[in-house]
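Repro:
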Amino acid sequence: MEQQEAAISAAKATNLQQKATMLKTEHDFKRAEDLFSKKLISEQEYNAAEAAYDVAKNTYESSLHEIERAQAGSSQARDQLSKTTIYSPIDGTVTVLNSKQGERLVATGQFAGTEVMRVADLSHMEARVDVNENDVVSVKVGDKAEIKIDAYGDRKFHGTVYQIANTGKTTGAGTQEEVTNFEVKIRIEDAAVTLKPALSCTAEIHTNEVKDVVAVPMQAVTIRTGESNLSPEEIEKKKQKVAQRDKGDNNAEFVNERAEKAAQKEERERVSKVVFLKKGAKAQIVKVTTGISDDTYTEIKSGIQPGDEVISGSYSVISRKLKDGIKVTYDKEGMK
């Protein structure tokens, strides 16, 4: 900066000198012009005085531009000096400090700038979670969410979805583990606790909500096909016996294959969701219409009433073995 200020002072001094020279040559030119009109000097002397005046005038104007150039250099130097002090665009807390005092930083047109530090506003935190491609279509901006942070145990934080990625991220491409997820950002609304960046968390996003409805455990809902009173396990055993009986008979195998395909198509058309109620000591199958579900319960829109005893158990029991009219009892852990 001192060098630039000195350059401005030198340019101004030169300008004053050139101004004085221009005024002198202007005076000499006017005198020569008067003498030439009276034919007291030669034309050569007159032309010399005129040329000297023109040179001095142009030199003076050039000195004015030198002042402007020096001032522009000073302004540029002042701007560069101001950039040596880095200001954070937000108020916050330094969370990462990559460079310390005395270290050299790179910031040119050819190289990426050095990250000096990271500043975060810890009073406004967000959770970034990956949502599977099958579920992200149900998520929308404004949905409420409950966030569980590993460091805080079972405590739940409340938030609101404010951004959903437009492009998914695929991991394990070309393998059986290939998964596509979309990043969803949730603004955390609880300000009572100061959270730290990079904490692990999971989120439960409420994509839909109903109140005062009949709901049953998710594993209590299963599917049945046709009107047969046999359980799926019994139906499968029956099919195996028929297949074993017809083994070796090519004609019967061809006929049975066609019949089996027709039967499978008919079964798919007659598939329905059911639950089993405990009526006395026996199970009663009931067709139901389901609504929304979460990780634990499924809404039942029709088929059962509040207060009905619903049979729940393992997948193999409910989906494979249980049938209408079978005897059921309570076990120590719950209903069976």
